[in-house]
Amino acid sequence: MKILVAIKQVPARDSQLRVQSSGRWIEQQDVSFEINEPDAYALEAGLQLSEKAGGEVVVLCAGPAGAAQTIREALAKGAHRAIHIEQDDLGALDPLAAAQLLAAAVRTEAPDLILTGLQSDDAGYGQTGVVLAELLGLPHATIIMQAEQSGSGIRVKRELEDGWFQHIEMPLPALLTIQSGISRLRYATLMGIKKARTKEIRRVTASDLGVTPAPVLSIERIYAPEKSKQTQMLEGAAGEVAAKLVEKLKFEARVL
Amino acid sequence: MSGVLVITEQFRGAWRPISWEALAAGQQLASQLGTKAGAAVLGSGIGTLAQELAGKQLDRVYTVDHELLATYTADAFTAAAEQLVRQMQPEYVLFPHTYQVRDFAPKLAARFQQALVSDATALAVRGGRVLFTRQLFQGKLNADVSCGGPPPWFASVQAGAFRADQVRPGSAAIEAVPVSLDPALIRTRAEEPFREAQRAVDLSSAERIVSVGRGIREKENLGIVEELAQALDAELAASRPICDNGWLPMERQVGSSGQTVAPKLYVAVGISGAIQHLVGMKGARTIVAINKDANAPIFEIADYGIAGDLFEIVPALTEAVKKAKG
User: Is A160 in Cβ contact with B104 (below 8 Å)?
Assistant: First the structure.
């Protein structure tokens, strides 16, 4: 089975973010990057499926030159090769434009299964995978907890709301978006890191792929959210703030 | 023709309550645009639900009733919604932001060369244009987003962003919208939805909750949080990563995929406040947040915040609570 995993590089979780002077995206220079967490689980699911069914795992990533680091890490974990669509201004792409870009690269591969995380931790639209399936004419399912091959198709467990789940079967090729946190992520081994250096990363641009991504949504302005509540920040040594807080909970909020 | 069409959601014949919030958003958007809102319900045997919608201030209630819509599939719902939207030609199509909407609305929007403005928390009309507010970077920043290209434009609204009790009553005619669906177009075979184990812990009735997130780092560190919960006579709860790791059972998870709680006191320990968690607990009366990152979104909704090392603060707090209780 040929599995393609679409991953994205996003600012690390604890990054301090500054808004660009344009007001439309964040300053990228002072931020460190990592793989989008849900995509890490998609990669893990892809590696596990390929270990059972054989075949290769191809990583697909659109992003600036610096995304090569995240791609190498995916190769070190066991992906066989990668395609890097070099694209600088991801922040200006909406899910439609991002999916147009990815779809053009997927068409050159014709995988049996496409996996991606259920959403990105940066823009968080949560729809690139679904739109990609639509552009490629493939069946899909989202927020997947488990996937296993079943005859010539795939059977998945999908998470619904409020503690409900559902099993769904579909023929291949298909696309799944993977829920975060569903398995234990593997670490890259030293051997894996060594091997990754020799694995193929095919670099392409939008124009190589013959697409001009055409976003329809535009971010007019980004800004720090206004507080919906007046938060009292308590400061001081641990013992001191603890005493202050108890005082407030007892006499101000009256919840003790 | 309605300028705004709200596509509501039902699950096994009962409303998803967030449908009313989407309806409130639709009414607000329509009145700001000087147009009218209509609402649609999709499914099989949905007459009673449509009757309920007809008691609201709407231009029209549309029913899309078809046996192939009895069980949700992305293929059938997309096809049905596409036919509905092509017939009604609304300018804006609004959805409640549910897991089901996340599964098919992006596909629907793509058929109109559009993208969904997903998970909007607010909307405003400025100079005849609609700006939707949505969260970026796990709630650290907000963005105002506008839609381009020719309509229809699509957006979904976040749980809790609009108030169901602000839906204006009225009286609307019901119109059945015929759609043609071919069983062959449904590529997925959906089995009956099921629930895993019944919940043994009902956090929704807890008066006080101490909830722990990934800031706790190791399972072995949970002890200090348990001690705080005990001192406060509180239930112990957690954000999703803790339950995914198996450190606490799933039934103690608070958030969109866990329980929704509204205690008198909610103490969030090492929880940054991703929106999936916040929607489950922002109804708490008093919220305390303890987190090392002073910019974490949890502080946006906290009444009392302590930015610092939880490994020092939590044990100190436990002591202080014990002392106060004598």
Answer: no
